[in-house]
Amino acid sequence: MSALRSPSSRGLRKLTSHRSPLATSTCRSFSILNRPKPNYPGHVPLTTIERGALALGSAFGSLINPRRADLIAALGEATATPYFIYRLRDAMLSNPTGRRILRDRPRITSETLQMSYLRTLPENSVGRTYATWLDREGVSPDTRDSVQYIDDEECAYVMQRYRECHDFYHAVTGLPIFVEGELALKALEFLNTLLPMTGLSLFAFVRMKPAEKERFLTLHLPWAIRSGLKSEELINVYWEEVLEKDVNELRAELNIEQPPDLREIRKMMRQQQKREKERLEQMSS
């Protein structure tokens, strides 16, 4: 875990070029009337125009409704190529743990993680923290959409892995799933992964209330910048192997600070507003 992030060498970059000969020949013959066969189950090949339309449509739709996970997923895939998903794949290839993940190709579901077992782990363990976070937020690891629009089969798995690990990032940081928490985590992910979707998601800032904007700008955005710039490559964490590790120890290894407790902050503000309202009612009576 101490060497989660290491730069790829020139030789490795040559070995992991962004396009394989097969992908190149496929692109040359690609058209709406001559669509190539899928590269993996569920794959939907797109022309450049189709990919651009998908990116614009999903970006606009997810800005209107940030809860549309399907649109956010489509935006992530449409904007990840031709460079960014390959950079993330190369980061895994340049790391021993990342290479093992690519070889093993584990999937994160409620069955593979055995949620009943995670709930029996020590309270401050990574697995128990993850299970507690899922229960508190009312979400499940089984709800992640399958990758469809990334042509390279290995890179499609990298995107799937990132998508399924997202809730672990939430759990380790303690950030909830409402807009403030999501934007704080997306800011950290952007600096850590460079995936454009994570940065584009920050435009949802315009939909936040004035008090939320102030909290985000003064508390959670500075936290995200600090942690995102110095953190290890999160894609190289083999979460299935660290479930019993102390979560504070893992944060230290990843160079991620624990952010201010957003739920506690909102609770304190609601209590303050309630007291202020009661004080004004007493004054007017």
Account of the 3D structure:
The protein is mainly α. The protein has one domain. 60% of the residues lie in helices and 0% in strands. The chain has 14 helices and no strands. α5 (84-93) crosses α9 (153-173), α8 (126-137) crosses α9 and α10 runs parallel beside α12. The longest helix is centred in the C-terminal third of the chain and has 23 residues, at 262-284. The radius of gyration is 21 Å and the shape is globular. The chain starts with 9 loop residues before the first helix and ends with a helix. The relative contact order is 0.13. Mean pLDDT is 85; it is low at 1-28.
Considering the chains and any ligands shown, give keywords for the structure.
single chain, 285 residues, mainly alpha, 14 helices, globular, disordered N terminus
